[in-house]
Write a structure and sequence with these properties.
With 407 residues, this protein is an alpha/beta fold. It contains 15 helices and 14 strands. Strand 8 and strand 9 form a beta hairpin. The radius of gyration is 22 Å and the shape is globular.
Length: 407
């Protein structure tokens, strides 16, 4: 990318709100219900939607005509049955809406433009020694400009907003990154949404990064198959999320699912937080002590194979300790499933899941029903995709606990 001081910043060049569908989203419950049903189960004809939603065929027909008129849905290919006329499923229109997602990470920022069905239509990344507000907002400005240039005028009007996934209290990273204290102190006094309003008219939603990743799994991953689950995302630091009754629970202060803070028991019998053993930051420290350049983990996925001798002990410990945290989570909420995902290749994720399953079988589960431990489906981009999907969900789908029970 170019230097952030040279990025284009005229507000007229950045996608802005239009008078179209993206300003207010959908207010009607039944409209959101039908869209949510289509999103979670795939295209369906009006008759099937009416049956599942317990609405009259006439009501559903009126709603579908409206949604098609504003281009949120479109007709699929007719399906021919044994008798009668072929049925025509209604499905989401990928170009019906777009949203921007930005993940602010420890060593890099990643930005995506996502369409209504979850396709990533644009992506951009920016690596740095540590994140500063000036660099992050410069990168976002440049990325919005590039997105604007990549879309047709009609598509630009359908951008719902910008979702920002970032760790809470990012200013506490100074000691971990060896960065100048004043570089991080700025974050403590910055209103991210207000800063972005200086160069974009789009709505802004700021989310905890692990919660954002949980949103991605819930909306576009394997999580759509489950009503309740706990979610672990192993990034630079491990975090998590909670889904109950088909809704991501963010909490009163948007910090629900802080699973990285759970206390687990180490090999030496001492207690410590999960974040202090199941984070990629810990693996980097292990590699650094062995004289190995850990930067290759982020630059070359194959290095996870070549560094297996050092990576495998960390994978085993991570799986073991996630199992302990999963047990604790199920002591509070009877989760059917625990999902594990992270910023690493699939084979690493699968190994962590396998070790977690094995450890769960060894734990004392008296009074607790053991959950299934499954791998997530989104991977490294889960945080930026989740940030984008949260905006889309708020605009067009049902996020209320009771709304999706019949799907």
């Amino acid at each position: 990318m170019t230097d952030s001081t040279e990025t284009p910043d005229p507000k007229s060049e950045i996608p802005a709100l239009s008078d179209g569908v993206n300003q207010s989203g959908l207010r009607d419950y039944n409209e959101r219900l039908l869209l949510s049903m289509i999103q979670r189960t795939g295209g369906m004809p009006g008759s099937e939607l009416a049956k599942r939603a317990s609405l009259s065929p006439q009501t559903v027909s009126v709603i579908l005509r409206k949604l098609e008129k504003i281009q949120l849905i479109q007709k699929g290919e007719p399906v021919r049955g044994k008798v009668g006329k072929p049925s025509t499923p209604m499905q989401l229109n990928p170009d019906g809406a777009f949203s921007v997602g930005l993940n602010i990470g420890r060593r890099g920022a990643n930005m995506v433009l996502m369409d209504l069905v979850g396709n990533v239509r644009f992506e951009k990344e920016f690596r740095y020694p540590y994140p500063t507000p000036r660099d992050i907002f410069g990168f976002l400005t440049e990325g919005l400009y590039d997105i604007n240039q990549s879309l047709k005028p009609a598509q630009r009007k359908r951008i719902t907003g910008i979702g920002i996934a970032m760790p809470f209290e990012i200013w506490n990273w100074t000691d971990l990154l060896g960065a100048p204290e004043d570089a991080f102190a700025e974050w403590k006094h910055i209103d991210v949404a207000a800063e972005i309003s200086m160069f974009s008219d789009l709505p802004v939603l700021v989310l905890n990064d692990a919660t954002a990743a949980c949103h991605a799994e819930h909306v576009f991953g394997r999580g759509r198959e489950y009503r309740d689950f706990a979610y672990f995302f192993v990034g630079a630091f491990v975090g998590g999320g909670v889904v109950m009754n088909n809704a991501v629970i963010e909490g009163n202060r948007q910090n629900a699912g802080a699973l990285g803070a759970m206390r687990i028991t180490g090999d030496d019998g001492t207690s410590h937080a999960l974040i202090d053993s199941a984070s990629i930051f810990i693996l980097e420290e292990m590699l650094a002590k062995a004289g190995i350049d850990y930067a290759q983990l982020h630059e070359d996925p194959e290095s996870w194979h070549t560094l297996a001798e050092s990576v495998i002990p960390w994978v085993r410990k991570t799986g073991t300790h996630i199992a302990q945290a999963a047990r604790q989570a199920c002591c509070v909420i009877d989760f059917e499933t625990i999902f594990v995902d992270g910023a690493f290749p699939d084979h690493v994720r699968d190994s962590i899941v396998a070790h977690a399953r094995a450890e769960l079988e060894r734990l004392d589960m008296r009074g607790v029903i053991a959950p299934a431990i499954e791998h997530g489906a989104i991977g490294t981009k889960a945080r930026e995709i989740g940030a984008a999907s949260s905006l889309m969900y708020n605009q067009y789908f049902l996020n209320a606990n009771g709304g999706l029970k019949s799907i």
